[in-house]
Design goal:
The structure holds two protein chains of two kinds. By secondary structure, chain A is α+β, with helices and mostly antiparallel strands. Chain A is built from three helices and seven strands; from the N terminus they run αββββαβββα. Chain A has a single domain, classed as OB fold (Dihydrolipoamide Acetyltransferase, E2P) (Beta Barrel), CATH 2.40.50. Chain B is built from five helices and eleven strands. In chain B, strand 10 and strand 11 form a beta hairpin. Chain B is globular. The chains are: A alpha+beta, B alpha+beta. Chains A and B meet through strand 4 and helix 2 of A and helix 2 and helix 5 of B.
């Protein structure tokens, strides 16, 4: 049952690329997460601004209209404030979002989140310490992401 | 009787002024870094983890931490945002009994450290709080030094009133019993009486994935020396001959966070269990392995 769920989610993946700097995290380490980043567009169902880690739950619909509910973890509220100004009011149910995650290796629709944008491209969280690396490494991931998105959005000749 | 209205006339505007200074800035916001010199002062400050590397660098530059005059016998302040890692290269070989204790901590999952006491908010204990704390603050009082840890929002008391360590501690403590003294410019802490349910540190390496154990007989010695206003030199030695074949010493440094103050990172068991149930355990290949 789980593998098809990831396959379904992967259908809406805009980009997939390896993240090289795997961090050591509290609670469970990174062994849970695939090194390949996936982009998931969807609608926020719940935003849990709470220790030990902030959670985002959002619905992702594929081309056929099937909905898969994803859960993604972030760092603690304290750390997220340092990461770039995310607050208790940053998300609410119904918000349309684009979320960059590393999904569970198991295929379950669970993940660690590295970046959140609104559907219009407004940045909610540029990068997350929970997804690992130093500030510079996270900034480099963001630049790579921007370059990829710019390439993908370039008009085709 | 006549003094009261006069005092009121003087104090009321002062209180108003203080109030607006103190309340004008919401917690965690950073307009102008107005109080870079010491942590106390009007206005709410960032918690250590609420700052990123750029914030910290900016604060430290503004406070001139490298050249600022300082009192070598004053180690008060907020130090670091995540503790000081133990020197794993110096980890002594475990005794056969120590190996047995370690084996009992090993995770029953390859995907998360399933037996880590942290998962359910059991106290980290000491010296794990030294190694993982989301920020540590020393506060010096005439007869004791208080050491606050942001992770778990806990404090440890280091008595400096001349008492000796209890030779036979009546109740083992997660943070142990601690006494401190100055030798020259070095503050030395000796501690014993540790509850053996805590781990020294999470371990992932050639022996497997779990936590390094200790017995109640563990002794910990720490040395702190403020080498400049913004830098604390640290040495921590763990001695527990039943588990480790020789003493285990780590030297390191902690940097002052001049514009940070301890926040409130309680580890709330119900929140932690909920988090594990909502994302960690369902992510595992064998989601049935519940703690």
């Amino acid at each position: 049952m789980r593998r098809p769920m990831l396959v379904t989610a992967s259908l809406v993946a805009m980009v997939v690329f390896p993240i090289l700097n795997l961090p050591v995290q509290a609670h469970h380490g990174t062994a849970l997460w695939s090194p390949d980043e996936v982009t998931l567009k969807g609608t926020v169902v719940e935003y849990v601004w709470r220790n030990p880690h902030v959670l985002v739950i959002w619905d992702v619909k594929d081309d056929k209209g099937n909905v898969v509910q994803w859960t993604g973890e972030l760092a603690s509220p304290e750390t997220l404030m340092g990461d770039g100004g995310m607050t208790k009011n940053s998300l609410k149910p119904g918000d349309e979002v684009i979320i960059y995650v590393r999904p569970a290796k198991s295929g379950a629709p669970h993940s660690v989140i590295d970046q959140i944008k609104r559907a219009d491209g407004t940045m909610v969280l540029r990068w997350s310490r929970q997804a690992g690396g130093t500030d510079e490494e996270r900034a480099a991931r963001d630049r790579a992401r921007e370059a990829r998105d710019a390439e993908a959005n370039k008009p085709k000749n | 009787m006549r003094i009261f209205p006069i005092v009121s006339i003087v104090t009321f505007p002062c209180l108003l002024g203080f109030g607006s200074a103190a309340l004008g800035q919401a917690p965690g916001q950073r307009p102008g870094l107005e109080i870079p010199l010491v942590t106390p002062g009007p206005g709410w400050k960032s918690c250590p983890r609420c700052q990123n590397e750029a914030h910290v660098a900016e604060d430290r530059k503004k406070a001139n931490v490298d050249t600022r005059p300082f009192d070598a016998h004053d180690i008060s302040g907020v130090w670091g945002d995540n503790g000081i890692a133990l020197d794993m290269k110096m980890l002594p070989p475990l005794t056969p009994y120590g190996q047995k204790l370690f084996d009992a901590t090993k995770s029953d999952s390859t995907e998360w450290n399933s037996k880590d006491p942290m998962n359910i908010c059991d106290p980290l204990g000491y010296p794990r709080s030294f190694t993982y704390n989301y920020g540590m603050e020393f506060v010096q009082l005439p007869d004791r030094v208080l050491q606050f840890f942001e992770w778990g929002h806990a404090w440890r008391t280091i008595w400096t009133d001349g008492r000796k360590l209890p030779p036979d501690p009546p109740i083992y403590r997660y943070l142990g019993y601690a006494v401190g003294r100055w030798e020259g410019d070095t503050f030395i802490i000796e501690a014993n009486g540790f509850d053996d349910r805590s781990w020294i540190v999470e371990y992932r390496g050639s022996m497997g994935w779990g936590g390094l154990p200790h017995t109640p007989e563990m002794r910990v010695e720490e040395r702190y020396k403020r080498v400049n206003y913004g830098l604390l030199q640290t040495t921590l030695t763990i001695t527990d001959p039943k588990v480790y074949s020789k003493p285990w010493t780590t030297t390191g440094t902690a940097t002052l966070r001049p514009n940070a103050e301890i926040g409130e990172y309680f580890c709330v068991p119900s929140d932690s269990i909920s988090f594990n149930d909502r994302n960690t355990i369902p992510s595992t290949a064998d989601a049935s392995k519940r703690r």
